[in-house]
Amino acid sequence: MRYFNYLTSEEEQSFFYSLPRPFDNDADKEVLAHAVGAALYMPATRDTIANDLAAGKHEGLVSMVIDLEDAVGDNQIDYAEDMLKQTLVKLGQYMLIGKLHSDNVPLLFIRVRSVDQLKRLLSFFGEEIVYITGFVFPKFNVETGGEYFRILAEYNQRNRTARGALYGMPILESAEVIYRERRLDTLLGISELLRSYKEYVLNVRIGATDFSSLFGLRRSPDHTIYDIGVIRDCIADIVNVFGRMDNHYVISGPVWEYFKSERVFKPQLRQTPFEESMGKHGRILRMDYINRYVDGLIREVAMDKENGIIGKTIIHPTHIRPVQSMYVVTHEEYMDAVHILENSQGDLGVMKSRYSNKMNEFKPHLTWANRIMIRATIYGVLNENQNFTCLLAQEREPAIV
């Protein structure tokens, strides 16, 4: 699969200086960790997942989490597990008859609700396990987390020659993480645990909805999660522990819950970037995103990136394109990264950027430059005269299959 593979060749040439490169779920772990991007959650009880993928219903979809936890009622567990297996079997059948191409199968993850369920799934999955990239572990702590990863590691070691590794993505969302008096010990304990299983840890994900519920809070569509002080402080500590370059993990941001709402405050999308990219059509497009209340999502993704967070849980297909577009590397970022990497041998310490608007310090900015190059490989690099808004055009009609 490849990001933005639905664009025409003319659009690719117009938008991109360097196109995204293709990958699959056997790609290098670092590539996959950054490629999860906008992970669309779907309840496992949904019986149209395979059909929707075959029909290309969600244009641009690259990663999906099939949810067996919060999206499934306690009385639906057996049905949800059966439906999950049917979905995976159907995917295989569709690919066998040519109704679905492997390039159009997103990275698939399963969010489990317990250690016992993980054991059960691994035992009854057959060949269809090849379509799964990994599992999501909710309400992660040292006790249950150790069991999750022990089981996952044992499975991978038993099946090492049969397929690539299955990965785990812990979600930090429990009281032990958010409560200040327990947070540091909990985060350090989780960090030590994950260090033991690092080859299987794909993302560290933040579950701000559960955090907020512990205080009876819910952010409004006019604000980002960073406007809620208690959540912002916790995110800062998570980044402090798991974002350090000597023990770095890709950290994925919390869900944006809104896809339609009434506006109270001033819109958060400036008009200029849209006009510069698309003129009059850009102004219309901007208003469409404002009316769908996606401008707050775009603002929050921008804040995620500033805090070193790449990737986001999404709950509505209209969020796919806004989130993905924000991860594409700008031409200026790419030129800075190349400039830094080309001059990192120690002959120079600092130099004016090629855009002549900042100073590039070759040692302090080297890690940043390496991370930009990873994103550039996965999401591509925009042309000099383009910004993220060029990728926000309305969704096309799904292909007839």
Model description:
- By secondary structure, the chain is an alpha/beta fold.
- The chain has a single domain (24-328), classed as Phosphoenolpyruvate-binding domains (TIM Barrel, Alpha-Beta Barrel).
- The chain has helices at 9-15, 29-35, 49-55, 77-96, 115-124, 142-158, 175-178, 180-196, 208-213, 229-242, 271-278, 280-291, 295-306, 320-327, 331-342, 366-379, and strands at residues 16-18, 38-43, 63-67, 107-111, 132-137, 167-172, 204-206, 251-256, 312-314, 350-352, 359-361, 381-382.
- The protein has an eight-stranded parallel beta barrel with strand order 2-3-4-5-6-7-8-9, surrounded by four helices.
- Strand 10 and strand 11 (359-361) form a beta hairpin.
- The radius of gyration is 21 Å and the shape is globular.
- Residues 395-401 have low confidence and may be disordered.
